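hey
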């Protein structure tokens, strides 16, 4: 049967697939749009199976804050060409929209949610594998809950952060934006020194001691020097102790407290492709 341009266009809007892929699927399905959707889905499954072992190191990251809730999502693909494609980015935004609307609490929960009337998020991603011809992987997703959650999306969408605060309001949001950019720029490993794992602490002490001994310091002094270097490590690598990048006379903890007494960060997330 003859396939009309309007049928092809309708299928393209439904699936995001290319015009020729849509036309071929409709021809194979004898003009049945629902059957054509299934054909395109199966194509995605075949491509996914074929490219399952490929590395997906490119992609985009989107974050969004909604008052007391924040969401951050990373979808990986194989090439920079796909990552920069507007259709791909719109698709990733649509996944985040599903997460926000339904308040998905984890990656697994999000994958099982309905993307539309027919497909789950996981099935829709598989369908899109057939559209772009590359492996796609929802590699990271987190939802944070607090009095206020502020999001920051770095230009290019290769990096995004969430910052959870213990207070809400205009001042808290504005300060949260500054801290979210700080997290992006300075990549802290934890909120404070209590959040640094013991293996990291042991490694820093060992390195500090070895450096002191190499500098000719006696063993008992090397221990003290290592402790001092560990304190410096905490100041440089834990968020609340880091110097505020816009005013390095203040730590982040001091900056927040100067904005509003008692204001602090309770949690943060940072996703990066590099």
């Amino acid at each position: 049967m003859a396939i009309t341009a309007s049928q092809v266009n309708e299928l393209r809007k439904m699936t995001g697939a290319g015009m020729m892929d849509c036309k071929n699927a409709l021809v194979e399905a004898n003009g049945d749009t629902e059957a054509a959707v299934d054909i395109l889905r199966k194509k995605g499954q075949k491509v996914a199976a074929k490219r399952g072992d490929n590395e997906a190191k490119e992609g985009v990251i989107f974050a969004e804050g909604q008052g007391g809730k924040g969401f951050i999502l990373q979808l990986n693909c194989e090439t920079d060409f796909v990552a920069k494609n507007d259709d791909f980015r719109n698709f990733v935004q649509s996944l985040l929209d599903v997460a926000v609307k339904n308040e998905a609490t984890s990656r697994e929960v999000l994958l099982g949610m309905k993307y539309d009337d027919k497909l789950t998020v996981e099935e829709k991603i598989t369908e899109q594998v057939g559209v772009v011809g590359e492996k796609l992987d929802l590699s990271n997703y987190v939802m944070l809950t607090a009095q206020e959650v502020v999001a920051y999306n770095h230009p290019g969408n290769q990096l995004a952060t969430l910052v959870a605060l213990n207070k809400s309001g205009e001042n808290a949001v504005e300060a949260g934006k500054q801290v979210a950019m700080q997290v992006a720029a300075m990549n802290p490993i934890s909120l404070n020194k209590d959040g640094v794992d013991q293996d990291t602490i042991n490694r820093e002490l060992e390195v500090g001691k070895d450096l002191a001994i190499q500098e000719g310091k006696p063993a008992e002094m090397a221990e003290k020097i290592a402790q001092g270097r560990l304190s410096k490590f905490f100041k440089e690598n834990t968020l609340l102790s880091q110097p505020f990048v816009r005013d390095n006379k203040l730590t982040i903890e001091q900056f927040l407290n100067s904005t509003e007494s008692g204001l602090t960060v309770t949690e943060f997330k940072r996703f990066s492709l590099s």
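Residues 5-50 form a domain with the Helicase, Ruva Protein; domain 3 fold (CATH 1.10.8.10). The chain has three domains: 5-50, 58-145, 193-263.
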